[in-house]
Amino acid sequence: MPPDDCPMSPRLAAITVGVMGSGTEEHPDLAAEVGALLARLGVNLLTGAGSGVMTSVSRAFTQSERAAGICIGIVPGSPGQPAVPPDGYPNPYVELSIFTHLWKSGDEGTDLASRNHINVLSSAAIVALPGSRGTASEIELAVRYGKPVIVYAPDERLVSAFPQGVRRAKTIQEVEDFLRPLLTASAPCLS
């Protein structure tokens, strides 16, 4: 048992939700809403461990009150040095880093040498925020692997290049309404 002046360490939850999005732009308002929602739902957050949306959502998640759930980051390797992560990985909010040798991303995000497969397959559901080709490839993989996926952006122009036919949400309530049945079906004790 930790001393009274030591904050409780987060604990692993039974369910993990992946959040995918831009590796360069943070989209702080959207990411903050999603991070806080996932913390409130008591799930683990999984990202690609980098900057942009990955940092922004991880920051919001880890700075929110949570009874359960940790921030997991799937860390890529570097081309030519697969055991060495690229600069900036993992971001400072990742609580559990999973280091991989997989370096491909962006236009090559569906390639078998991309960690995007791990991101998608390790998540019970995917929330996609604005991003570019790498995010689009993760959405494509979620559809391929039959993972529930929702795109969240009040401004449709930010996600117009994403695969059509994937559910869109314009409010955080729509994201919660999408996630809650999936989570309660997987974990009946989740409130």
Intertermini distance: 26 Å
Helix tally equals 5
CATH topology: Rossmann fold
Tally of discrete structural domains: 1
Q: Uncertain segments of ≥5 residues (pLDDT<50)?
A: 1-6
Task: Calculate Rg over CA atoms.
Answer: 16 Å
Choose one word for the global shape.
globular
- Tell me the series of helices and strands, N- to C-terminal: EHEHEEHEHEEH
Salient structural properties:
single chain, 191 residues, alpha/beta, Rossmann fold, seven-stranded parallel sheet, 5 helices, 30% helix, globular
Q: What does the secondary structure layout of this molecule look like, with pairings?
A:
Layout: E1 16-20, H1 28-41, E2 44-47, H2 53-62, E3 71-75, E4 96-99, H3 116-121, E5 125-128, H4 133-144, E6 149-152, E7 167-169, H5 172-186
Structure in words:
- The chain has 191 residues and is an alpha/beta fold.
- It has one domain (16-186): Rossmann fold.
- 30% of the residues lie in helices and 15% in strands.
- β2, α2 and β3 (71-75) form a beta-alpha-beta unit.
- α1 packs across α2 (53-62) and α1 (28-41) runs parallel beside α5.
- The longest helix has 15 residues, at 172-186.
- The chain is globular, with a radius of gyration of 16 Å.
- The relative contact order is 0.17.
- Residues 1-6 have low confidence and may be disordered.
